[in-house]
Amino acid sequence: MATVCALCTPRAAWAGDDEPEIVDVETGDGTIIDVEASDGTIIDVEAGEDASDADPPVVDVNVRGAARPRDTNRGASSFDIGRDVLEAAPNQEGAEVLERAPGLFIARGAGVGVGHRYMLRGFDADHGQDLDLRIGGLPINLPSHIHGQGYADVGMIIGEAVDGLRVTEGVYDPQQGDFAIAGSIDVDLGVRDRGWRLKSGYGAFDTFRQLALWAPEGEARETFGAVQYQRTSGYGDNRDAQSASALAQVRFGEGAWTYRALGIFHGARGQFPGVLRREDIRRGEVDFYGVYPFPTAEKQSALNARVMLGGFADYRGEGGDNGQLGLYLGYDTFRIQQNFTGFVEESQVLDGVAGRGDLIEQQNRTLTFGLTGRYRSKKYEPFEWAKGTVELGTSARLDDIEQAQNLIDAAVRSQTWDQRVDAGIKAMDVGLWGDLDWLFSHYVRARLGMRGDLLVYDVNDRLGNFAPEIRPDDAFIVGFRRSAVGFAFGPRASIEALPVSWLSLKAAYGEGYRSPQARTLEDGESAPFTKVRSGDVGATFQWQRQLKLTVAGFYTHLSDDVAFEAREGRLERVGASRRIGVTAYAESRPLSWLVAAFTLTYVDAVLLEPPPPTAEDPAPAFEEGQNLPFVPPVMARIDVGAKRAIVDDLGGHDLTGRLGSGFNFIGPRPLPFGGNARPVGLLDANAAIGWGPFTVDLSLFNLLDVEYAAVELNYPSDWNPTGPRSRVPARHIAAGPPLSWMTTLEVAI
Q: Torsions phi, psi of 651, nearest 5?
């Protein structure tokens, strides 16, 4: 039994110091206490009887801990989001737990089967190009994906199996690699409530969800299995969808080496109506939640299936040194049919063929193999006032990619009437990084790291050197095979000062990169990485559990940005950009049964070097000094959750109640060719009551029934197949869901 002071306020400390990190835990009788745990250990506590009547009270506890592999707290914009914040407000799907990351907004513009759209820290990361996403340590982003560089679909997340989020906004940790432009998020998987849990839910638009979760008693919280199935008829027209996910993880082993194995399985297919012109909605030609009455619009759909397997070995030596080795294997298949422009495109292969509908078919298959490894030394103490550790790490991945893009005629059994892409890509990324983590006295901690990555590409572009049938005199065979290599490196540094126990001051600087889309490379080219230079300064105030407040200002410079190109349904380069902004994040637990979180982000995102006019695009939509399109200058979120007993010992069990709410605000977003998308404010709420093994929950989403666009774009299109073609830019929207509800019965065994 260990003796812990329940009301003391210990001095905050760092994992690299003699003093341990402070971790908040809950005793078996529900009492919240602060427990000191070395190296950021997460502790489960079971309370015994009071060992003393002294003031402050002393509680005897049983302590069982599991150390984190490494400290990722870098700069003022590093956040650990706990389980209580994640479950404070209801979620329509598991992926929405990511919205608890300060300043992050996600939306499904194309429905189930297509990755979310992410906005963070002044970046419109589209489907993941500027945000490094990991689940249980497995990388989700896919390089050189046909639908978008760094494509990341997190539809496989099961919210009940998420134990927390580790968020690093900016690029200050040398472990951050490709796509960590705006930052990185690692989803920690784990289940705290052990045993069986079954959930069955039914809601608006004939939505059904079934969950089965098993967390064996006596095992670590990382050991569990979960499977879910969901289907819906969808709000409005053309939104039928089905999806299923399975997560399985086990932690085993004792002593210096412990092991973790993880499997992720996900499949989804959904229809969607695509984008609608606002002027057509105003004229009543199509409903806000409708679809254009043409096969080329009604056949829009997406399918995604993914399998990821990973194994990790964690080492912790007696001298405090530690390390990790990991291997992972992944396979992803993706197909989407999507029409942005209506009836504009002409065939590049068939002479004089046009007007068959601009239904773009994209296909992508990726086979991935990767490894990670790191070792952190024991603490060196060359001086009484200086001590620290040295860490070395490596990462490597190989991706075998097959992709295609065609135009198809939905009215004639999906005939292909134009080919745009047919390519095979082999991409390899080998990274090496080092990190110094040193403490100078009890008041200053400094970290200095460096990361370098070598990327190798082999591209077989089967439609390169294009020779259409309308040029019969061409004297060569279509195809363009090429290879390229690039090297990216940059420093990562941060410094932290602790002048008093309740205040931490931090500053950080880092340089990161985004790999290029392989098909854009020339033979022998030194691969042109997109480079980001990022810095932030800030302060964190903490008063026990009652309040934790972080305010951070940041600056980023991106060597070349991208924007959406509707005709090809993908992103294109637009030039260099910079962002200046500030983020505030607060967590409060004023009572043992109440938690609240608030975040506010303001950013000024400006394009520095727009693309010059060309023969194909004589009037580009971008000008020097304009605010970047699709980036909201203001974003805010509030989460509040309460859970406590209503009646004690009612028939042998307590009657408990839970209330929660979450509010998202997205400010006006600049659009190409001028104008702004409308601001959006969304309120979700839920109420639940539980008795013994049974819990009934009612969740309401978009409680105010706001009619809003999940995605809003501005570009030329033409949805009249018989009239003169329009070349004037027009507003297009993909409608977000209206007021909806879900009622769920949970049985915990």
A: 65, 35
Domain annotation covers residue 603: yes
Q: Mind spelling out the 3-state secondary structure of 457-500?
A: EEEEECCCCCCCCCCCCCCCCCCEEEEEEEEEEEEEEEEEEEEE
What's the CA gap between 456 and 577, in Å, rounded? 27
Return the ∠ at Cα 35 (arms to 30 and 36), rounded to 5°.
170
Q: For residues 698 and 557, state if they share a domain.
A: yes
Q: Whole-angstrom Cα distance, residue 89 to residue 639?
A: 6
Q: What's the rounded Cα separation, in Å, for the pair 355 and 419?
A: 15
Number of helices and strands (H, E) in the chain?
3, 41
Q: What is the pLDDT of residues 579-590, one digit of tens each?
A: 999 999 999 999
Q: Count of CB atoms within 10 A of residue 583's CB?
A: 26
**In 242-273, which positions are buried (b, 16+ CB within 10 angstroms) versus exposed (e)?**
ebbbbbbbbbeeeeeebebebbbbbbbbbbbb
CB-side neighbour CA atoms (13 Å) of 210: 4
C-alpha 126/C-alpha 629 separation (Å) is 12
| Same domain? 278 vs 361 | yes
φ/ψ (deg, to 5) at 361: -105, 120
Q: What is the pTM of this model?
A: 0.89
Q: Is 360 domain-assigned?
A: yes
Q: Rounded CA gap, 276 and 730, in Å?
A: 10
pLDDT in tens, 378-422: 999 988 889 999 999 999 999 999 999 999 999 998 899 999 999
Number of domains present in the structure of the chain? 2
Domain assignment of residue 56, given as a range: 2-66
